[in-house]
Amino acid sequence: MTLETRVLVNGQWTTRNVDIHHILAQSRISPKEQDTETSAETMNPPVIGVLTRKLVQSPVVKFIVPARIRHKDKNDVLFISEDFIEIKELLHDGHLQDVMGRADFGSKIRSARAVGNPTRPAVSPEPTGIDAIVKMEDVQPVEAKENPLHTLPPQILVLTLESNTLVFLFADCGLTNQYRFVSYSRPLAEHVQHTKRPGKLIAIDPQSRAMAIAAHEEQFTIYALKPMTQLKDELESPDGILGDRFIPVKEASIHLAQDIGQWS
């Protein structure tokens, strides 16, 4: 006499015919011996992994930084999350228009600031009626000036990453209308303790001559920055690759402040 049973083998249910005498014999075997005998038929433990990247991009914005990192006439607002940045342009009607973004930093963004000299171009109201006609008649043809292939915007975005990396970036379009990011990165000082890793706190000189990057305690780094005029001249030079000419840092020095204690 046999019974039809279903057994889980290698993750799949299989139908088997089992003799009644075999079932009675199994009931007389001790639990330890039974586990040894049936171990070959049990399912192998599943392979378990840990996700190191999110499947869905987080919509939470950590920083909102007004900065003209494309052009002096582009009134941009930067929305910065933990792993991406998004540029929106503030239009004359007060609305924000999506421009571009970047999410390939390979690490979470720890902090963000803007360095440079923001400019606010004077905007005069457009003439209407007879004034507009007079303005059109007064327009004289002017000789077009030769523009450089690449132009440095008034401001540059500074990011510190969880990977102990310092990033400077701006957007450039060259002679096309498609902007792309130009960046420069260098490592930050490493430390085993999380509270002593620099990058959470950023302070920038109002004239953008220097920048301080600090941890929550004990140490900070002072960076001497190149003047924006010097960066502009180096960027507009036709020699070399654009990314190789963009080096905003002159030198850096690490300082310890153990006697100061913690600050926030």
Could you give a quick summary of the protein structure above?
By secondary structure, the protein is an alpha+beta fold. Helix content is 14%, strand content 35%.
Description of the structure:
The model is unreliable at 130-146 and 259-264 (pLDDT under 50). Strand 8 (155-161) and strand 9 (165-172) form a beta hairpin. The longest helix is centred in the middle third of the chain and has 9 residues, at 130-138. The chain has helices spanning 20-27, 31-38, 130-138, 228-236, 242-245, and strands at 2-9, 12-19, 63-66, 76-80, 85-90, 96-102, 109-116, 155-161, 165-172, 180-187, 201-204, 210-214, 219-225, 249-256. The strands form four sheets. The chain has a four-stranded antiparallel beta sheet, with no helix packed on it. It has a four-stranded antiparallel beta sheet with strand order 7-8-9-10. 16% of the residues are buried. It is α+β, with helices and mostly antiparallel strands. The protein contains five helices and 14 strands. The N and C termini lie far apart (79 Å).
